[in-house]
Amino acid sequence: MTDRLLYLARTLSRTKRKDYENYVLGAVWNRLSSETREHIKPVSQQTVRGSDGRLFYLDLYFPQLNIAVECDELHHLRQKDDDILRESNVRAALDPVDDPDVFATISAISADAGCRILRVPVPEAPKAAGKDAAESAPVHTLTLETFEAAINTQVAEIETASREARERSDFVSWNELDARDEPERFYRERTEFAMEDAVVFSTIGEICNVLLGAGYSADLNRTRGYFTPRSLAATRRSSNDLSDVKLWCPSEVRVSGARAAWGNTLSPDGQELREHDRRSDAEKTKAGRSAADHPRITFLKVKDPVTGRSGYRFVGLFQPHSIDGDVRVYRRSDTRFPIVGR
What we know:
Blueprint: H1 4-11, H2 19-31, H3 34-39, E1 43-49, E2 55-62, E3 67-73, H4 90-93, E4 95-96, H5 102-106, E5 109-110, E6 116-122, H6 144-166, H7 174-178, H8 183-186, E7 192-194, E8 200-201, H9 204-212, E9 226-227, H10 230-233, E10 246-248, E11 254-255, E12 264-266, E13 272-276, H11 281-287, E14 296-303, E15 310-324, E16 327-334, E17 336-338
Parallel strand pairs: 1-5, 3-6, 10-14, 11-12
Antiparallel strand pairs: 1-2, 2-3, 2-4, 7-17, 8-15, 9-10, 12-13, 13-16, 14-15, 15-16
Helix pairs in contact: 2-6
């Protein structure tokens, strides 16, 4: 299970050189009731994706409530009734992610998911010191009392939403969310795995045993990231023939953009994977049938920026789409896959 103290210390201090934002995030969390803090998980710097694939940050996000807290400098304040995240205000209201990594890309929520934004006004950041000492002072008319009252107002909104959520039968507690750290326990009663599960597997062998029923030895340490697990090969000529499906776990993937020449690149919207085939012609001939002919159950190696934990996360079933020279293109066809043997 996640060390909560360590998680909170790291997630509430991720904004760099943003003193007011750091204060707001800590104040919001610590003013919530003990019941809410026990059951509701905070996520800082949550990414949200616009329709064009670009990513933006939310200062603080509560996934179980679909509520975000945004710190707005006074000159950026939106209309008071603009409390639902809509495509029209994504660029104007949120900080852009200039160089997204794979974790930020596959963890992003959609801009049209109806996330409610609670805004807290903060003073503008102080300007760099110049000849005039007054230039380095923050320019604002926000009093401490007004600042604190704004925080308390939003804390009350979160408390109300938390109580309502915890009364619903489908509510998922923080403890249940953390069960994702133990894949075998998380999937024990399930019949399929999905992207939205956000489960991270420590090894490729663990993926094979928990999800694909491979029954490999506990100390299996596969270094090969592209193969047919024996449990899938065993389904050949059966009514549920999955023998043509490959498991693909590329260890190094970049988000396409400035580094698009990397061996494996993921599109900003997560829908397309491009594999740059760097084998020699002789190696390609020896390999025989093109690997592009196979559908791929795909897990990407990621690193959680808060916990520092690395592992493999499911990003979908990808189908071969096209070949352009040495570049093979795969498109995501599904975000779910049945657990083999159930």
